[in-house]
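Reminder to self: tokens first, then the designed residues, so the page reads top to bottom the way the pipeline ran.
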């Protein structure tokens, strides 16, 4: 699956569907006077904004390496994910503030009714389908901004579930709409935090997972029967390009030339098998 085209496709589908859902939810919120439905509507529209970011990031990340950026432009995906997290955080703050104001003023929704139930139920189904679509593309391509967009869709579906639950209690508790808006805001904050944490971790640098280390070690052992005492792994993830460094130990009587040949053969194997550029530091055993 082509990573750039897949990012475009997910973004375009998301924008079209979210725009339609936003109009539907906003119409329902105006009729009912519900801040929870309004929060849900603007949350849905924010998905469209994040999808625009995904499309732009897919374009920028697809640019080839150049003199100024020798490792490519793949980290635009992380930058896009951080921007999406920022959008979510701003929307969360806005509706947290509005929910508190509504509660303090003892305001309540005019009444939900069948319109709200139908609109909310449709939103739950459609947004979860969009989330699954984004997660599928994210898994196939490894695109972190598409994954972030998927979590944006998922958080919207979950917030709609909260609204739907609240609909059935709106007549009994005047404060239910304020509480739902507050809960949705917290859910948005959590989604923003998770997206931000993953993106920042990748930009700052991360330790290779144990499975990758084991796979590389086993691949090397299948070629060289001697125990090379492989250790000190580091990975530099530029998304479209990954740099791996580690140390090996060779017998101390091996010449520099022989050591260079062994290291180069291992580097070529890793490039072929794992699609990573490796740099190996040779130490005497």
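Designed residues (285 positions):
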């Amino acid at each position: 699956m082509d990573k750039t085209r897949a990012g475009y496709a997910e973004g375009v589908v998301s924008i079209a569907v979210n725009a339609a859902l936003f109009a539907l939810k906003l119409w329902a919120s105006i009729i009912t006077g519900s801040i929870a439905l309004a929060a849900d509507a603007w949350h849905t529209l924010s998905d469209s904004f994040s999808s625009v970011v995904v499309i732009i990031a897919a374009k920028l990340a697809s640019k080839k390496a150049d003199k100024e950026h020798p490792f490519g432009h793949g980290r635009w995906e992380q930058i896009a994910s951080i921007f999406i997290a920022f959008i979510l955080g701003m929307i969360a703050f806005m509706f947290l503030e509005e929910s508190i104001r509504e509660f303090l003023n003892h305001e309540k929704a005019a009444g939900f009714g069948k319109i709200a139930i139908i609109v909310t139920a449709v939103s739950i189904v459609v947004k979860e389908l969009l989330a699954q679509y984004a997660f599928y593309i994210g898994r196939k391509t490894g695109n972190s901004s598409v994954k972030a967009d998927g979590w944006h869709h998922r958080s919207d579906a979950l917030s709609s579930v909260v609204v739907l639950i609240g609909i059935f209690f709106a007549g009994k508790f005047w404060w239910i709409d304020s509480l739902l808006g507050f809960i949705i805001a917290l859910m948005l904050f959590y989604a923003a935090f998770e997206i931000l944490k993953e993106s920042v971790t990748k930009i700052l640098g991360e330790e290779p997972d144990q499975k990758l280390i084991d796979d590389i070690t086993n691949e090397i052992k299948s070629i060289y029967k001697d125990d090379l005492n492989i250790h000190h792994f580091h990975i530099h993830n530029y998304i479209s390009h990954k740099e791996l460094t580690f140390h090996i130990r060779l017998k101390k009587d091996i010449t520099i030339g022989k050591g260079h040949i062994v290291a180069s053969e291992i580097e070529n194997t890793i490039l072929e098998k794992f699609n990573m550029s490796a740099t190996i530091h040779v130490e005497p055993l």
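The helical segments are 3-32, 35-61, 76-104, 113-141, 144-167, 176-204, 210-221, 256-274.
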